[in-house]
What we know:
Blueprint lengths: L3 E2 L23 E8 L3 E9 L11 H4 L2 E3 L2 E5 L5 E4 L1 H14 L7 H14 L11 E10 L11 E11 L10 E6 L16 H16 L4 E5 L7 E4 L3 E6 L2 E4 L10 H12 L3 E4 L4 H9 L3 E8 L3 E10 L2 E4 L7 H15 L9 E4 L1
Parallel strand pairs: 1-3, 9-10, 9-16, 13-14
Antiparallel strand pairs: 2-3, 2-8, 4-7, 5-6, 5-7, 6-18, 7-8, 10-11, 12-13, 12-15, 15-16, 16-17
Helix pairs in contact: 2-3, 5-7
The structure holds pyridoxal-5'-phosphate.
The site of pyridoxal-5'-phosphate has 14 residues, from helix 5 and strand 15.
Amino acid sequence: MDIKVTLTQHKKEKPDYSNLPFGVYYTDHMFEWDYTEGIGWHDPRIVPFHNLEMSPCSMVLHYGQTTFEGLKAYLGKDGEIRLFRPELNMERLNTSNQRLVIPQFNVEDGVEAIKKLVEVDKDWIPTGEGTSLYIRPFIIATDVHIGVHPSKTYKFMIVLSPVGSYYKEGINPVRIYVEDEYCRAVKGGMGFTKTAGNYAASLIAQEIAEERGYTQVLWLDGVEKKYIEEVGTMNIMFVINNEVITPELNGSILPGITRRSAIELLKANGYKVTERKIAIQEVFDAYDNGTLNEIFGTGTAAVISPVGELLWEGRTIKVNNGEIGPVSHLVYDTITGIQSGKIEDKYGWVTKVD
Length: 354
Ligand SMILES: *Cc1c(COP(=O)(O)O)cnc(C)c1O
């Protein structure tokens, strides 16, 4: 792919890197790629970061035909810039596209675009422990038409945002609220995709959880409100009797890359890992009979987020005394170690930029 690069004449001032909130600052450049029916994806380019000009009747604004991804670039102490399994993000974006009737793109081209953009804006990658450059690829339907049908034109963009460490004062277990009224997705819907509508559907429950002093929502299945699905932007794992159990990919949960990596590395370390349906009652029963060892979420933002407390139907349980457990620790240390280059990448997960 021939990416045309136009560099900015007005470099922005860098923000305070010692205190970076998530998703607020954007780098000097962005990637753009257009799709036109009959031509395909064309004119890949890196240009100065700019606002979009679009018709109020652009299709994405009305019916949400859009998909996105999220990954990070890490700058190691050795000066190398690493991406963590970016080809899986690009494959997943195509899977989301397929569901949203957005045209497929070439996965290698997508990875190349990410690498090239990160390279152009590499002076924006923060260097502090746990910091990174967040990468947000996304695609929008751009036909100007208020009618419900798939668009014939699209725009694929990538923006970058320097982000601080998720854990500023050590790994903090989170308090999770089990949502039993609303649901996020059902089988046959869009739960397995990263598309705007899934997150719009989740906001109301997130707000209720926060009002009650909880950080995130744990979603149950939309049909029986019985089986565990996932947390807002994380997959979830349970350690019961030293076995790691995580909900199987059933079409309504997001197939996380951190989830997949955690499963692979836990198996390689001799753990028994099972992907199956798990009822919320089973977790509370395990707590009652003393076999619930750990609960943790997995996702790009935090890598691992230990769950310290779970509230379901008025009952609260405290997990592992509100502390991070050994399984969570192993997964966290291994994945962050590989991302920063401190640990040898024996699984071949890293793509270097340059
Ligand atoms: C992105 C996301 C995840 C985590 O996926 P990773 O690839 O591990 O970052 C889990 N659940 C939802 C709903 C997500 O959007």
